[in-house]
């Protein structure tokens, strides 16, 4: 019998197939570090460190409180160029992440049954190898993304509830979802990478005062809302399989948390969308100046 060159075994002795090997036409686009990457050592370490995301969120919340208090009586800083570089970095990172996860998601949706996409252990379907690396990087990226709020505080911009609530809950959920090996993680990862690639790219241009007149920012919020709709639907469908299939590798608590999180995001983003773009309040008429 011929040996499958794409078949490998990860640190948990589970077999998986390296995605870049399955499609030789794009294999040259992957680095040697990505191919057959084993995420298990770091995953197992993360499983034993539940306090890290909690501590990060506490430090984040305290920093917001004291940061805003500090700038309440001081002039704002002007770090627009640094903000532009930061947004460009996140946009490029997210774009690469999208290219590394979305194709694998499409592969799974077309080669696995719907039930398997909702229930199989991700360490065997997408969580190992090159795609596993970028899923892992996605989880870890939720820590540096907290820096977004730093720029809001130092520039004395309004900090809305949706912003900091989103950052805290995403970080906590992503960590928990990863350490409980959520089967549906790649769906959320690919969607978020895609939205962030566009969103941070737009923020990069805004920081440079190069707002593209052809691009309506409403599109970004619509993408975010669509992401939440898919998120809610995924949690409902996966919970159905959890209730009807004893072998479905789904963590009940994680799935309930996902439903509550995506449900709250859906409400808040819809509220933000309509208040910003379809507000019934009429703006005061500005007088012409000569």
UniProtKB/TrEMBL annotation:
<dbReference type="Pfam" id="PF01151">
    <property type="entry name" value="ELO"/>
</dbReference>
<feature type="transmembrane region" description="Helical">
    <location>
        <begin position="225"/>
        <end position="243"/>
    </location>
</feature>
<keyword id="KW-1133">Transmembrane helix</keyword>
<keyword id="KW-0012">Acyltransferase</keyword>
<feature type="transmembrane region" description="Helical">
    <location>
        <begin position="161"/>
        <end position="179"/>
    </location>
</feature>
<feature type="transmembrane region" description="Helical">
    <location>
        <begin position="83"/>
        <end position="102"/>
    </location>
</feature>
<comment type="similarity">
    <text>Belongs to the ELO family.</text>
</comment>
<dbReference type="GO" id="GO:0030148">
    <property type="term" value="P:sphingolipid biosynthetic process"/>
</dbReference>
<feature type="transmembrane region" description="Helical">
    <location>
        <begin position="255"/>
        <end position="278"/>
    </location>
</feature>
<feature type="transmembrane region" description="Helical">
    <location>
        <begin position="133"/>
        <end position="154"/>
    </location>
</feature>
<feature type="transmembrane region" description="Helical">
    <location>
        <begin position="51"/>
        <end position="71"/>
    </location>
</feature>
<dbReference type="GO" id="GO:0005789">
    <property type="term" value="C:endoplasmic reticulum membrane"/>
</dbReference>
<keyword id="KW-0444">Lipid biosynthesis</keyword>
<dbReference type="GO" id="GO:0034626">
    <property type="term" value="P:fatty acid elongation, polyunsaturated fatty acid"/>
</dbReference>
<dbReference type="GO" id="GO:0034625">
    <property type="term" value="P:fatty acid elongation, monounsaturated fatty acid"/>
</dbReference>
<keyword id="KW-0275">Fatty acid biosynthesis</keyword>
<keyword id="KW-0472">Membrane</keyword>
<dbReference type="GO" id="GO:0042761">
    <property type="term" value="P:very long-chain fatty acid biosynthetic process"/>
</dbReference>
<keyword id="KW-0808">Transferase</keyword>
<feature type="transmembrane region" description="Helical">
    <location>
        <begin position="185"/>
        <end position="205"/>
    </location>
</feature>
<protein>
    <recommendedName>
        <fullName>Elongation of fatty acids protein</fullName>
        <ecNumber>2.3.1.-</ecNumber>
    </recommendedName>
</protein>
<dbReference type="GO" id="GO:0019367">
    <property type="term" value="P:fatty acid elongation, saturated fatty acid"/>
</dbReference>
<dbReference type="InterPro" id="IPR002076">
    <property type="entry name" value="ELO_fam"/>
</dbReference>
<dbReference type="GO" id="GO:0009922">
    <property type="term" value="F:fatty acid elongase activity"/>
</dbReference>
<keyword id="KW-0276">Fatty acid metabolism</keyword>
<keyword id="KW-0812">Transmembrane</keyword>
<keyword id="KW-0443">Lipid metabolism</keyword>
<dbReference type="InterPro" id="IPR030457">
    <property type="entry name" value="ELO_CS"/>
</dbReference>
């Amino acid at each position: 019998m011929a040996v499958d060159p794409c078949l490998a075994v990860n640190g948990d002795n589970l077999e998986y197939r390296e995605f870049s090997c399955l499609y030789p036409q794009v294999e040259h686009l992957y680095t040697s570090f990505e191919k057959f990457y084993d995420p298990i050592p770091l995953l197992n370490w993360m499983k034993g460190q539940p306090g890290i995301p909690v501590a990060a969120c506490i430090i984040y919340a305290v920093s917001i409180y004291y940061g805003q208090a500090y700038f309440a009586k001081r002039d704002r800083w002007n770090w627009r160029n640094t903000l532009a570089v930061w947004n460009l970095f996140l946009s490029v990172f997210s774009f690469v992440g999208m290219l590394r996860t979305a194709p694998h998601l499409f592969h799974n949706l077309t080669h696995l049954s719907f039930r398997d996409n909702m229930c199989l252990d991700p360490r065997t379907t997408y969580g190992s190898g090159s795609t596993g690396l970028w899923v892992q990087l996605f989880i870890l990226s939720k820590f540096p993304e907290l820096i977004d709020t730093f720029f809001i505080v130092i520039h004395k911009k309004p900090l809305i509830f949706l912003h900091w609530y989103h950052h805290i809950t995403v970080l906590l959920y992503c960590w928990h979802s990863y350490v409980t090996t959520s089967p549906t993680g790649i769906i959320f990862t690919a969607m978020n990478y895609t939205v962030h690639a566009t969103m941070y790219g737009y923020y990069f241009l805004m920081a440079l005062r190069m707002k593209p007149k052809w691009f309506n920012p409403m599109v970004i919020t619509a993408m975010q809302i669509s992401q939440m709709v898919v998120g809610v639907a995924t949690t409902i469908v996966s919970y159905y399989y959890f209730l009807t299939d004893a072998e479905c590798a789904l963590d009940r608590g994680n799935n309930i948390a996902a439903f509550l999180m995506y449900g709250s995001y859906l409400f808040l983003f819809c509220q933000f969308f309509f208040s910003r773009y379809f507000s019934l309040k009429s703006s005061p008429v500005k007088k012409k100046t000569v």
